[in-house]
Design goal:
mainly alpha, two-stranded antiparallel ribbon, 6 helices, elongated
């Protein structure tokens, strides 16, 4: 609680009500009892788990518990609803209480479905097709990618990489472009 000159916020509120001649408001009755509040909290936790972890994250027992808790909440809303609960009943009517346990559980070995790519911006470019790239622009040679590198040991890869780099240096020397000559030639042609 907040204190101002040794008074809590409740004390200040009581003084203000007394000065204004307003009676103290009684503590409002809770809308839901402890059981229903617990059902709300547990239902939300289970739904949060499902959203975060995806399909198949809830066991059949958890789904049955969720169904039971939601049905208790609906029954409480229908019986203790606002003014007879006509709005509550109509809003809750589409929810079916079919047992979810009878539904087949999704198989783990299902083939992944192809994702659909919707181009929303010209700057984003085409969807990644799984080939090449590795963070480089298309058409750029990646000097670290060597044919068969996946099957090589670290020592074999290091040796092959050194041969690849040395081979490119040899080609440049044979072409007459060595050191900073390429940048000099560039500047000469401007």
């Amino acid at each position: 609680t907040t204190k101002l000159y040794g008074l809590t916020s409740d004390d200040i509120l009581k003084r203000a009500r007394k000065a204004a001649g307003v009676e103290e408001e009684p503590e409002p009755e809770p809308i839901f009892n402890e059981t229903i509040m617990n059902d709300f909290q547990q239902s939300l936790l289970l739904l949060e788990k499902r959203v975060k972890e995806g399909p198949g994250s809830l066991s059949s027992t958890e789904v049955q518990n969720l169904d039971t808790m939601l049905n208790r909440i609906l029954v409480d809303l229908r019986t203790n609803g606002n003014g007879g609960g006509s709005a509550v009943t109509s809003a809750a009517a589409p929810v079916s209480a079919t047992p979810v346990a009878s539904a087949p559980a999704p198989a783990v070995s299902q083939t992944p479905q192809k994702s659909i790519y919707y181009e929303t911006n010209d700057e984003e470019g085409a969807a990644y097709n799984g080939k090449g790239g590795l963070g480089l622009a298309k058409g750029t040679t990646n000097t670290y990618v060597i044919e068969g590198m996946d099957e090589m040991s670290p020592e074999e890869y290091r040796k092959a990489l050194q041969e690849s780099v040395s081979g490119r240096q040899r080609q440049r020397r044979q072409g007459g472009i060595v050191g900073n000559l390429s940048s000099n030639n560039y500047l000469d042609n401007l």
